[in-house]
Fold this sequence. Notes:
Layout: H1 2-40, H2 46-49, H3 53-57, H4 63-66, H5 76-94, H6 96-123, H7 127-132, H8 141-162, H9 167-185, H10 193-222
Helix pairs in contact: 1-5, 1-6, 5-6, 5-8, 6-8, 6-10, 8-9, 8-10
Amino acid sequence: MSSGRDEASARGRARVTHGDLLLTLAAAAYIALVAAIELFGLGLSPAELGSSPDTLVRGEVWHLLTSSLLVDGEVPLLQVALLAAVTTAVILRHGPRVWWAAALLGHVGSALLAYAAIGIAITLGNDAADLISDDWDYGVSCVMAAQFGVLFAGAVLRMRRAGRRDPLDLLFVAAACVALAAWLATIDWYGIEHPLAFAIGIAVLGVAERRAGAARTAAPRCA
Length: 223
């Protein structure tokens, strides 16, 4: 009976490992596609991939996802490199499932919250919000902001549990704070997505840690 349970447990670990590998490769493919679009264009532009409150109202919800394939800013390749570095750190520390949850919820969730704020402002008669409601909203920065939130929360939790300040944890906290400060300094109607994505990343890590803790607690009862 015990050997049967051991075999089932081994198969379960193999499935998890295989799934994590696929998710890691998918994350790498995403970053490679972003880099390829930036380097070669591939005939894609904000008009094809970008989102906005107006496109959402028209029902073009897929733009909430495709808008994460473009880079917005003056140093796009540096952003891609930074995204790759942050992605590597999150996957190594917290796994690809956390990365994907933070990436999707951070990018899409922050956009929906920002668009809702714009919609409310338009309803209240704010002309500035009305003017930008059809501007293209795109970029990898909210995916990155969510990952910084994950690293920040993870580092703080590790230091609290260990009762000491590990240099790598301090580095992650400092880097996350610098990035958040830079986003807050340039905040606008779409810019509010960055702190929102950062907060979503923190929340994702918190949920993942609670689930992991519950699984560890339940494991002895399943033996």
